[in-house]
Write a structure and sequence with these properties.
The protein has about 180 residues and is of the alpha+beta class. The protein is about 35% helix and about 35% strand. It has a seven-stranded mixed beta sheet with strand order 1-2-3-4-5-7-6, with helices on both faces. The longest helix is centred in the first third of the chain and has 16 residues.
């Protein structure tokens, strides 16, 4: 196990050939992470809306959205989505970039891979000309909040997150891109 902690993942930019992989992995990891805390119908509605292949394909063809795939050898073990979009009011900066999604498969968690992927997301945001990296995180997801705080993110506000018919509260977290 100790050797696995030291292994470096490779990161590659996703292409339209990865649409199905992203849709399936995204839905699976979201459901594994949050399914037990939400009503099944709300989860189903959210997964169908948020991880449909047509929208992911559109994202991949956009210059404002970048998906990064975390690879261990030839296996995809996680992914992230970085977007140039309008930031909520509490986020400051002339070009804030959203860390829209970041997931590492649970079988590979706690080995430093999330940190490696977040480093790649920060560099991608920098390449997009970003000066601030921001994200929304469920206010009940204490583990993720601690992870982001270790990376210098601070809670700067709150926003609604709609999962099916359930309106939830997310913290808005942001940090400067140095």
């Amino acid at each position: 196990m100790g050797d696995q902690i030291q292994m470096k993942i490779s990161i590659r930019r996703a292409t339209v050939d990865d649409v199905q992989l992203i849709a399936e992995m995204g839905a699976r990891l979201f459901e594994v992470s949050f399914g037990a805390f939400n009503r099944p119908r709300d989860m189903q509605v959210y997964l169908e809306k948020s991880f449909n292949q047509q929208d992911i394909r559109t994202d991949l063809l956009s210059e404002k959205v970048i998906y990064l795939l975390a690879m261990l050898s030839e296996q995809v073990i996680g992914y992230a989505k970085v977007s140039q979009c309008k930031a909520p009011v509490p986020v400051i900066g002339s070009n804030p970039i959203e860390l829209d999604r970041i997931y590492i498969d649970l079988a590979y968690s706690n080995r430093g891979y999330g940190s490696q992927l977040l480093t790649a997301c920060t560099e991608t945001a920098r390449q997009l000309g970003g000066d601030t990296l921001w994200l929304g995180v469920w206010d009940r997801n204490e583990r993720a909040i601690r992870f982001y705080q270790q990376w210098g993110f601070e809670i700067v506000g709150e926003m609604e997150f709609v999962l099916g018919d359930d309106v939830q509260n997310d913290y808005v977290m942001a940090r400067s891109i140095d």
